[in-house]
Amino acid sequence: MTARPVAVEIAVQSAEGVRIAVDADATRIELTQGLRLGGLTPSAGLIADAVEISSGLDGFVNVLIRPRGGGFVFAPDEVQTMVRDIRAAVMMGASGVVVGALTDDGTLDVDTLRRFIDVAEDLDVTVHRAVDASVDPVASVAALAGLGVCRVLTSGGAARSGEGVDTLAQMVREASGRLEIMAGGGVAIDVIPALVAAGVDAVHLSASRPAERGASGPGGGVDAFEVTDPDLVAAAVAATAAASR
Description:
Strand order of the largest sheet: 1-2-3-4-5-6-7-8
Number of domains: 1
Distance between the termini: 7 Å
CATH topology: TIM Barrel
Structural class: alpha/beta
Number of strands: 10
CATH class: Alpha Beta
CATH architecture: Alpha-Beta Barrel
Radius of gyration: 17 Å
CATH superfamily: Copper homeostasis (CutC) domain
Order of helices and strands: EHEHEHEHEHEHEHEEEH
Largest sheet: 8 strands, parallel, barrel
Helix content: 25-40%
């Protein structure tokens, strides 16, 4: 066990999710939409709601910047869209942005990441699980440590964080305090103690459950959607606090 505090980040897709995370004393949120696609850039309205709801909480609203699902290799037009979305997040009062980009050969697209970091100005920059899709996740974390990135979200290259504990511990050693290692990807409450024991600085989870509100009808897509579960968020915060003692 460890005496250091470990942060809890909740991935939320709605204003309701923001309120739940605030009420449960989560450390921060990743604001996103389209989690079933791996997460997409949220709307301007949702960013504004999140900033307003969490007013006074430093570092709370971290906005995912990703224009589509289907991997992390982005065309020039997509990069330009992402740059504009980062600028919008800065202007709207977000605390940080969450980005990532790979090259065709599966390595970090360092040039694009530097551009994102520059545009983000003084905001915290998190690099998301693009590192887990890279050819060498540990080497990717080492490369990020020198770029001015605040933290990296990773499962240790595994499908689920609980299966990547050994690699996460290796990433913590590689980062050597130069950036935070945040465990995310299939995080269940019962694996949080093992993740904390591996030395990660934070845990990340959606703490969500499926819900329905009427039928979508033709052109509406699937009927079910995901909502933040307050009981799961509270359990995650409590489990992380207990494991951090």
